[in-house]
């Protein structure tokens, strides 16, 4: 599963770290390849936002992720590409149309939210509380996604 947002420094690295921990807790590492990426190239090579890292640490989760841009190969190798909002979804669908043998199912991570919060808003211009909201949404969605596909 690849988790995608615009810049790969806030939402998607939180989602990746949360999903990776859920997979680890369930002892399913052998079944899942977990990654995250950006639709843009703005932050390639950068670590996640310090507020994202702080939020994850508050929940006992560490990550060594560095931002990267999604590649054509991602569409050919991942079974699922889950994104955060409609803009990401449009960009990913457009990019996938240029890829031969696209096997990835592209959808909003929020599709799996039991609380029906479809969009995971970008917390970049927000507060610590907004990062916590993203974490909680990602946790709900990733749990539901893992239950469905485990």
Automatic annotation (TrEMBL):
Keywords: Cytoplasm, Hydrolase, Protein phosphatase
Top-tier EC class: hydrolase
Similarity comment: family membership: Belongs to the low molecular weight phosphotyrosine protein phosphatase family.
Protein name as annotated: Low molecular weight phosphotyrosine protein phosphatase
Keyword Cytoplasm: yes
Keyword Iron tagged: no
Alphabetical list of InterPro entries matching this protein: LMW_PTPase, Ptyr_pPase, Ptyr_pPase_sf, Tyr_Pase_low_mol_wt_mml, Tyr_phospatase_low_mol_wt
Catalytic reaction annotation: O-phospho-L-tyrosyl-[protein] + H2O = L-tyrosyl-[protein] + phosphate; a phosphate monoester + H2O = an alcohol + phosphate
Domain named Phosphotyrosine protein phosphatase I: residues: 1-148
Active site (record annotation): 11, 122 (proton donor)
Role, per record: Acts on tyrosine phosphorylated proteins, low-MW aryl phosphates and natural and synthetic acyl phosphates.
Cellular compartments annotated: Cytoplasm
PANTHER family from the UniProt entry: LOW MOLECULAR WEIGHT PHOSPHOTYROSINE PROTEIN PHOSPHATASE (PTHR11717:SF35), LOW MOLECULAR WEIGHT PROTEIN TYROSINE PHOSPHATASE (PTHR11717)
UniProt EC number: 3.1.3.2, 3.1.3.48
Molecular function terms, GO-annotated: acid phosphatase activity; non-membrane spanning protein tyrosine phosphatase activity
Primary location class: cytoplasm
Record's GO cellular component terms: cytoplasm
CDD domains in the cross-refs: LMWPTP (cd16343)
């Amino acid at each position: 599963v690849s988790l995608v947002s615009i810049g790969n420094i806030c939402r998607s690295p939180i989602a990746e770290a949360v999903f990776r921990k859920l997979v680890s807790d369930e002892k399913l590492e052998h079944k899942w390849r977990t990654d995250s990426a950006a639709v843009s190239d703005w932050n390639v090579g950068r670590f996640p936002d310090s507020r994202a890292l702080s939020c994850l640490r508050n929940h006992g989760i560490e990550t060594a992720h560095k931002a990267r841009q999604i590649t054509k190969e991602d569409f050919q190798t991942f079974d699922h590409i889950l994104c955060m909002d409609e803009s990401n979804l449009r960009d990913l669908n457009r990019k996938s149309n240029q890829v031969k043998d696209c096997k990835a199912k592209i959808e909003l991570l929020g599709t799996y939210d039991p609380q029906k919060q479809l969009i995971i808003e970008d917390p970049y211009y927000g507060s610590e509380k907004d990062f916590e909201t993203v974490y909680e949404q990602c946790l709900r969605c990733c749990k539901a996604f893992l239950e469905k596909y485990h």
